[in-house]
Amino acid sequence: MDRYAIRTTRREDWARLRELRLAALLDPLAEVAFYQTYEAALEIPRQEWERRAAGERITTFIGYPVDPEDPVGSADPADFAVDKPWAGMVTVFPEPDTFAGTDTDADSDTNHVVVVGVYVRPEHRGTGLARNLMRRAIDWAGEREVRLRVHENNPRAARFYASLGFRPNGVGHPDPRMPGFQAVELTLPARR
């Protein structure tokens, strides 16, 4: 049995989602893992966190530790996670214009989805949680192509994504915080 359970966030999870995102942005690797800064995330209003947690236009999967010997673990995973510390997350959404930073609604009929915000707390790294979170995101994509960006100065993440089948697609995105550097776009082909 897995040491972690995974579920999607709900509106009432907004404060915990915010806390986990802020922890991610304070991580020493944040500079090469996220475009957003800690300071910018602090400015996001509660309503936006609620919208994100509710899964409006995006889906966030969170992982939390479970004890296989705990009989409560067979209960509804959403209820079981209430008092469990969140160990990691991944966000996925269909990509029309949202990945480019616009505020238009995502079209669920797009041919590809985007993975963002992959994070596992340091004490849970190396446990398989990141792989399981990514598998859930890939499963969520169904038959659509999956894309993500990895900073060229983050070889560990690049190796991890390659182990899942992601490959560079030739597209690079300049890093606005690190002139002269870029994030490389990776693609996992659609499953048919």
UniProtKB/TrEMBL annotation:
Keywords, sorted A to Z: Acyltransferase, Transferase
Lineage top rank: taxon: Bacteria
CDD domains registered for this protein in UniProt: NAT_SF (cd04301)
The keyword Cell membrane appears for this protein: no
Gene3D superfamilies, per database record: 3.40.630.30
Coiled coil: none
Residues of the N-acetyltransferase domain: 4-191
InterPro entries: Acyl_CoA_acyltransferase (IPR016181), Bact_Acetyltransf (IPR050832), GNAT_dom (IPR000182)
Protein name in the entry: N-acetyltransferase domain-containing protein
Species the sequence originates in: Streptomyces cheonanensis
Lineage of producing organism: Bacteria, Bacillati, Actinomycetota, Actinomycetes, Kitasatosporales
